[in-house]
Amino acid sequence: MLFNRADDGVDIVVQPPLPQVVGYIVVVVIGLFIATVMIFVTKLLKATVNEDNSKTEMFITANRSVRTGLTASAVISSWLWSTAMLGAALVGYSNGISGPYWFAAGCSPMIVFFSFLGVSCKMKIPQAHTLLEIIRIRYGTVAHFVWMFLCLINNLFAVANMLLGASAAITAMTGMHIIAATFLLPVGVVLYTFVGGIKATFLTDYIHTFIILVICIFFTIKPFTIPEIGSLSNLYDLVAAAGARNPVPGNHNGTYLTMTSKGGILFGIIHICCNFGLVIMDTGYFVKAFAASPKAVVPGYVIGGVAYFAIPWGLGTLMSSVALGLENNPIFPTFPRRMTSTEVNNGLVLPYAAMAIAGKGGAAAVLLITFMAVTSTLSAQVIAVSSIISFDIYRTYIKTDATDADVIRWSHYGVVIFGVIAAAFSTLLHYVGINLGWTLYMLGVLTCPGIFPTVFSILWSRQSKAAAIISPLLGMATGVAVWLGSAHALYGEVTITTTGNVLPCVYGTVASAFSPLPYSLIITLIKPQNFDWADFSKTKLSFDEDNNSSITDIKKNSTFEGEVNNPLDPRYKPFMKHWANIAAFWSSATFLGHWVLWPLPIYASRYVFSKPFFSTWLVVAIIWLWCTFLVAAFFPIIDGRQQLYTIFNSVRYGRNSHSGEVDETARSSFEPTKNDEPYVVKE
């Protein structure tokens, strides 16, 4: 039975549509199966193309050789949080058509902008493994500890945000105990990341993203196959009727079918600030940027960022519209009542909509994509924290002459330690009454203080050491004070409920994000400094050549399909500046397109979507989502076909490279042919 109904027909307890054993099978059995497959793939790559994860450069940065297709897929996957799908439907249900749009617009611009930061890092300090290495070299030990604190806070709350939403959804689908789900979700992730390192993260990103997008494509079709919806025209009528029954406070005419939504625009402001913090202060993004080949960073992040936009926009718009339209229909799980605020804030809009259109099959689909999304993104977070523990703590302060084996061992410790701490912290938040909705709104207060200081550290040579140390700490203190003070001023008390409301979170997030800008500028003016970017090259970060360092590999193969790989090559910096110009253009274009040219005219005109406009809006979103599927699913295969061919031949003919020598077929995919021409910078 799908749900139980009290005698009065109003108080309804939604029963899990799937048995508890299904939850354990997905979380434990499938998780361990994927981990086993990834361990096998890791060993296969070592045997066929000499990708040895017992070497630090391979474990952390994949020898800086990941190509564009796999980079783009990994970028999509890095933001394909369970929160993205559950949260986009949540804000769509709460604010209407504007919610999923602002969710998507709060993600794509900073992903594309990171292409500019990534290529700048590779140009100025190509041997780096983490953001924190850059901070330590430029500003010293105190700043290094400050950034470690900021980055670990970022990673910890990001993972808690994922686990809270995913665990609640899994519990709603299967009845599995929420704490069991919280602790078991990281198990498979920890296992395959422990063995495979960053390359395993890239590969699992690809597999998980493929499965998630197949299910998303299913959800773009299924609503129109049931008689209760049937067509875009009928869905429009259902959403319009929902607005008439339950007008949205702050929306023009109370309708769900308008971009003129106070709640929507406030969420958009929170979300874009918060996500700039999540990207820039997430060491995992820097690790992936360093792992990408020089030519792959910009196109990988630009393609991935633009493609990602369709997932929260398309899926969130469609499934929140389904939930709103069917909520008064007997097929909806909570009928005849509306969803409660607890259900909405736990991220159950998407699961309930899926159950309404596809029954147990819909519940199973949501269960699977939730599991895939949280484990994929959790893997990136785990490897990021692992790199901090091994490189920035152990190698820097405990054993400065650490060998490959030492750093790998501490990377393994880091993977396990963070997996346990993240699950325990998420459990603590659950027991004090914090859910997905609360973390979704307040996250930026803690993740944003480092945005401007970090950007200045990479792009502005004049930011002083004092400014770098003081401004993010002052920014965090300012943000927290404004957040808590606003909650008390507006609602008379500081509680979990009041601090999770929109306005305190908006004020706190904006203060946290922007106050470090004047702090940094003023402190720098008082005590100016001028850093010489060439100083980065004076510090040796890669391991010795006999340890198979990435720089050794780069020297052996200085040209790859017209790309200048060797940082010692005089053409390297002009080559990277060329890509930096492309990244700057796309960063500006994406922000202007997603935040100014597209939404603001619709917002300012107070336009209420007509039926043709609504239909076009959804059709474009669905087509974009299908294109995202093609990019994530097939671009990596096409782009990496040479290495796949090498692996196939090695397995077929029994060739291997245990001796450390790559067979001729493998070498041909990395070395230039007579038809390859070196990159030439045009004057």
UniProtKB/TrEMBL annotation:
List the record's Gene Ontology CC terms alphabetically: plasma membrane
- Keywords tagged on the record: Membrane, Transmembrane, Transmembrane helix
Q: Where is the composition biased (Basic and acidic residues)?
A: 673-683
Topology relative to the membrane, per the entry?
A: Multi-pass membrane protein
Membrane-crossing segments per the record: 21-45, 66-89, 101-121, 142-164, 170-194, 206-226, 265-287, 299-326, 364-389, 410-432, 438-459, 466-486, 506-526, 579-597, 617-638
Record-linked Gene3D superfamilies: Sodium/glucose cotransporter (1.20.1730.10)
Top-level taxonomic group: Eukaryota
Asked if the Swiss-Prot or TrEMBL record annotates the protein with the keyword GTP-binding, the reply is no
Q: Which InterPro entries match?
A: DUR, Na/Glc_symporter_sf, Na/solute_symporter
Q: Which Pfam families match?
A: SSF (PF00474)
Q: Where in the cell is it found?
A: Membrane
GO molecular function annotation = urea transmembrane transporter activity
Question: What ranges does the record give for the region Disordered, renumbered to this chain?
Answer: 656-683
Tell me the PANTHER family matching this sequence.
ACTIVE TRANSPORTER, PUTATIVE (AFU_ORTHOLOGUE AFUA_1G17570)-RELATED (PTHR46154:SF1), PTHR46154
Family to which the UniProt record says this protein belongs = Belongs to the sodium:solute symporter (SSF) (TC 2.A.21) family.
State what protein this is by name: Urea active transporter
